[in-house]
Design goal:
Layout (H helix, E strand, L loop, with lengths): L1 H5 L6 E3 L3 H10 L4 E5 L16 E2 L8 H11 L6 H20 L14 E2 L9 E2 L6 H15 L3 E5 L2 E8 L2 E9 L2 E6 L3 E3 L20 H8 L4 E2 L4 E8 L11 H5 L3 E4 L17 H13 L4 E4 L8 H4 L1 H9 L9 E10 L2 E3 L11 E3 L4 E2 L11 H19 L23 H7 L6 H15 L6 H16 L23 E2 L1 H14 L10
Parallel strand pairs: 1-2, 1-10, 2-6, 10-17, 16-18
Antiparallel strand pairs: 3-5, 4-5, 7-8, 8-9, 11-16, 11-19, 12-15, 13-14, 14-15
Helix pairs in contact: 2-5, 2-11, 3-4, 4-11, 12-13, 13-14, 13-15, 14-15
Pathway: Cofactor biosynthesis; NAD(+) biosynthesis; iminoaspartate from L-aspartate (oxidase route): step 1/1
Catalytic activity: L-aspartate + O2 = iminosuccinate + H2O2
Keywords: FAD, Flavoprotein, Oxidoreductase, Pyridine nucleotide biosynthesis
């Protein structure tokens, strides 16, 4: 193993085997790269579960400027307009590139794109593959392309445990596999590890996605941004399975409605009704459930008899639960779905640490702002992979690592963190609930147990949420329900979060008004 690893030194190392990591590796070709995946490719990637598709202005009645306007409106004032504009302009070409890689997108008999409608989009611009299996089909094609690519050294079953950093610059990666620990000398690392849903009890993400990339970056000294903004999908299937199967928003785009157990259509008077922005729909469903009602997606009329053909994945898991969506309402509830915050990066995906980039959900590019527009996430992963690859390719390799790496940290287990975050950082939040979470997380984050790294990510999220004394997008404070007149992005370092958490834990509270959101 030592001979094999030494042969891979000096190459860029990509951490994460989802869509962002795979596409970054392909975009770097023919430069040799190392791709680390903790699980077999596709086994634990959130990308695999994506049903909605990719947002791109492909229709004759559409334009990137309209896509941009919808993205900015959903982002509640926190989008980086320059980044968003650049990305929506690149989106149609990205779809064409994926098609050339073998992704079988849904088309009409004449070859035209079959475009769907999702919440807060003013046009039908969602490109699907195999109905509600878009993520699975994209991952199939990307995995096949990576396995064919001679420049990619794929290490499956290898987990990055820490980054070796000296003088704020990457010097290597400390990882583990079944045989033990290994060190890869490199001055260029791309983190592409996905989301944080595994930190919560109810999530549409695989349980193995619990913010490992955020921990790697934070412990390396990188700044993180907008961690408080977590998107709860309003229509996760209300059943015992974890991750929770998703009843994609496209079903509502096809005319399905939301009803409660009395048959009342409770979103009817909201602007946009069932296709209002996700944060609004999630809060409406949350409130309805808090009043003692169950909530359902009613697709009996639209799409009705065509449901199984249009949405085979949803139809299959409904059938396993004894539900026929053409005849029965589908029970749903909100669940953690996507993290708008992440590693703070610039327009090329570079973090505040030299030689460290981030791509995909783990990054905070500024595209999503406070509330992600539906189906912009897969597109961000695909488009930004090219930007990151160009930046990585043009960067200097840096010197060899200096000194000896520390022993790897123990394997993480987020199970103790899930009830803490689910109670304190849910759809609705308040100061007391957030502070209780911080007091519970602080000792765990400072320990060396298997809960330490997940607790650290949860603690940083909680401190960021505690500081933002307003309600905006995916962050809703019942004690501060109004939106502040100026939209300000947040940033936080590991040291900053630990200092704030210690004061809260020791004194019981801080005057949050002195903190800059």
């Amino acid at each position: 193993m030592s001979t094999e690893i030494s042969a891979l030194n000096h190459r860029p190392v990509i951490i994460g085997g989802g869509a962002a990591g795979l596409m970054t590796a392909l975009q770097l070709a023919p430069e040799p790269v190392v791709l680390l995946s903790k699980a077999p490719l596709g086994a634990e990637a959130s990308s695999l579960w994506a049903q909605g598709g990719l947002a791109a202005a492909m229709g004759d009645d559409d334009d990137p400027a309209l896509h941009l306007a919808d993205t900015l409106a959903a982002g509640a004032g926190l989008c980086d307009e320059a980044i968003a504009s650049r990305l929506v302009q690149a989106a149609p070409a990205a779809v064409e590139h994926l098609a050339r890689l073998g992704v079988a997108f849904d088309r009409w008999p004449d070859g035209g794109w079959r475009l769907g409608l999702e919440a807060a989009h003013g046009r039908n611009r969602i490109v699907h593959a195999t109905g509600d299996g878009t993520g699975r089909e994209i991952m199939r094609a990307l995995i096949a392309a990576v396995r064919r690519c001679p420049s990619v050294a794929l290490l499956e079953g290898v987990e990055a445990r820490s980054l070796i950093v000296e003088d704020n610059a990457i010097r290597g990666v400390l990882a583990v596999n079944a045989q033990g620990s290994l060190v890869i000398d490199t001055g260029r690392v791309v983190i592409a590890t996905g989301g944080i849903g595994g930190l919560f009890l109810d999530s549409t993400n695989p349980a193995g996605c619990y913010g490992q990339g955020l921990t790697l970056a934070a412990r390396a000294g990188a700044l993180l941004a907008d961690l408080e903004f977590i998107q709860f999908h309003p229509t996760a299937f209300d059943g015992p399975s974890r991750p929770m199967p998703l009843v994609t928003e496209a079903v509502r785009g096809d005319g399905a409605i939301l009803i409660d157990d009395s048959g009342q259509r409770f979103m009817m008077d909201q602007p946009g009704a069932e296709l209002a922005p996700r944060d609004i729909v999630a809060r409406a469903v949350w409130h309805r459930r808090a009043e003692g009602h169950r909530v359902f997606v009613d697709a009996r009329k639209h799409p009705g008899a065509e449901f199984a053909e249009r949405y085979p994945v949803i139809s299959a898991f409904c059938k396993m639960a004894g539900i026929d969506p053409a005849a029965d309402p589908i029970p749903v509830r909100p669940a953690v779905h996507y993290h708008m915050g992440g590693i703070a990066v610039d327009s090329e995906g570079r973090s505040s640490v030299d030689g460290l980039w981030a791509c995909g959900e783990v990054s905070r590019t500024g595209l999503h702002g406070a509330n992600r527009l539906a189906s912009n996430s897969l597109m961000e992963a695909i488009v930004c992979a090219q930007w990151v690859a160009e930046s990585v390719s043009g960067a200097s390799h840096g010197p060899l690592k200096v000194g000896v790496a520390n022993a790897p940290a123990p394997a993480s287990d987020p199970s103790a963190i899930r009830p803490i975050l689910s109670q304190g950082l849910g759809v609705l939040r308040d100061r007391h609930g957030i502070e209780r979470a911080i007091r519970s997380l602080h000792p765990l984050a400072n320990g060396r147990s298997a809960a330490a790294d997940p607790a650290l990510v949860g603690l940083m999220i909680a401190v960021a949420a505690w500081r933002r004394e307003e309600s905006r997008g995916g962050h809703f404070r019942t004690d501060f329900p109004d939106v502040l007149p100026s939209a300000v992005s947040s940033s936080i370092s590991l040291a900053d979060a630990l200092d704030a958490a210690r004061e809260i834990a020791e004194t019981g509270s801080l005057f949050a008004g002195n903190a800059q959101p």
